[in-house]
Amino acid sequence: MQEYRLFINGEWVETQDGEVLDDINPSTGEVFARVHQAGPKDVEHAITAASAASVAWGKTQPAVREEILIKAADCLQARIHEIADVLIDEAGSTFGKAMFEASFVVNLLRSAAGEARRIFGETMPSDGPDIFSMSVRRPLGVIAGIAPFNFPFLLACKKVALAIAAGNAFVLKPSEETAVTGLKIAEIFEQAGLPKGVLNVIPGSGPEVGGRLVDDPRVKMITFTGSTVVGKKLAVQAAQQLKKITLELGGKSPLIVLADADLDYAVDAACFGIFLHQGQVCMANSKLIVEAAVYDAFCDKFAAKVKSLKVGDPRQPNTVIGPLIRGAQCQVIDRHVQDALDKGARLLTGGSSESNFYQPTVMADVGPDMQIYREESFGPVVSIIKADDHEAALYIANDSEYGLSSAVITNDLQKAMELSLRLEAGMVHINDCTVFDEPHVPFGGVKKSGFGREGGRYSMEEMTEVKWITIQMGKRHFPF
Ligand code: NAP
């Protein structure tokens, strides 16, 4: 049984005042590893190390940061199967999802390397006759990231890589459920030659470790990805420090299928967009809104496809639905399904579970009074809602407190574009599902899906501060 320590100041250290906990494989229920959890002294150690390292790191040449990030990409490429194995055993990823996630991060690291050279300022005209006026972007210092369990490698690496590219030091608190994945990020950057203290990875309890990171004045920014409930708490806590925070939170993302769509294509898109990683995806299209003229046909085709999805061992290459991260999530889904049935929805397939494995579940005739219409189930369950026309579809799509991703499938591009501009979401994908990400795009949501954007230059802007500098070339006239 492998035991993992904390990564602080470039060293693998035992916890000073935390516990050592079992890390459970959600597929088998067996202990996968033992992981040291950070206590208060460890958090203090990590922030002190990051603070000290941030000074020299903030002054490094872009070429140095670029080289380390490219080396990290190469190290990861060489260890891709090892990382995928951890994603399967620790996070319950299917083989396909694990390989996708690890490979995405190779590109992400390369893309972040390029960003190190693109931290641009501006010059601007001045009303003063002899003034040269400019802005520069400076690193913030220490940034702390708090990451979720579902895409634990990708989402944490996005934060780490771009923060480092911008010249910041970083403290990462991975999810307790995917601590080893977080520590693998440290292994890769250590191998790539990142100086000591620039990255520190400290698994531990959310409120305990995460809370201390938010409260500490040496940490200049929090980048959080997780649930809306926790995000709200952190926003309040960060506000007390007037600390910058970006929040990538939950979603109930709509996919609209208009009557002229290619229905087979729409079924495939909708299926991938909800069942990838058992529906544990923030941008999953858990709300399918289908125009009345094709509603029945869509429901039949969609249910038939979903019934064919293989549930089981995530290591089998043809498995689509692996385990949920924890059994308790099955009860949340059961409650949502039962509530919808009680209020008149139809169960087209699924609706049951065995240990952590929930059958892919389709509910039709879902309405606004049902929990499943509004609440994030974070599992393999999807609602189908009938809309009279595209205006009704838009109303249903926007009838949500969330606003992360969205999608429209139609051959009428003019109508699609009009809907895209009126959809209350941070991201809209035409003729696609809602699940889509690339390293350099502005990923993020509106409403209760959070604020701030992650990816490429958008992260660089969040993770640096603009400073205005002037040079008085002549002599300014002072009135007294
Ligand atoms: P979560 O329960 O909110 O946890 C996320 C992280 O926050 C974990 O590291 C957790 O630590 C930590 N945490 C919990 N309570 C905390 C507190 N009081 N103070 C500081 N940190 C705290 O979310 P999750 O269950 O891991 O992930 C699922 C949620 O994330 C879903 O709602 C999903 O939609 C959202 N998500 C959003 C995006 C996006 O980009 N918008 C992407 C992925 C996931 P512990 O592990 O110790 O609890």
Question: How would you characterize this protein structure?
Answer:
The protein has 480 residues and is α/β, with parallel strands linked by helices. The chain is globular and about 75 Å long. The protein folds into two domains: 3-249 and 449-468, Aldehyde Dehydrogenase, Chain A, domain 1 (3-Layer(aba) Sandwich); 254-430, 3-Layer(aba) Sandwich (Aldehyde Dehydrogenase, Chain A, domain 2). The termini are far apart. A seven-stranded mixed beta sheet has the order 15-18-19-14-13-21-22, with helices on both faces. It has a six-stranded mixed beta sheet with strand order 10-9-8-11-12-24, with helices on both faces. Strands 1-5-4 form a three-stranded mixed beta sheet. Helix 9 links the parallel strand 13 (254-257) and strand 14 (287-291). Helix 5 packs parallel to helix 6 and helix 9 packs across helix 10 (292-307). It contains 15 helices and 25 strands. The protein has helices at residues 40-57, 62-78, 80-91, 95-115, 152-165, 179-191, 206-215, 228-240, 263-275, 292-307, 328-342, 371-374, 390-398, 413-422, 456-462; strands at residues 3-4, 6-8, 11-13, 20-24, 31-36, 122-124, 131-139, 142-146, 169-173, 199-201, 219-225, 244-248, 254-257, 287-291, 346-349, 353-354, 357-358, 361-364, 381-387, 402-403, 407-409, 429-430, 446-447, 450-451, 464-472. Residues 146-150, 155, 173, 175-177, 205-207, 210-211, 225-227, 230, 233-234, 248-251, 282, 376, 378, 404, 445, 449 line the site of NADP nicotinamide-adenine-dinucleotide phosphate (NAP).
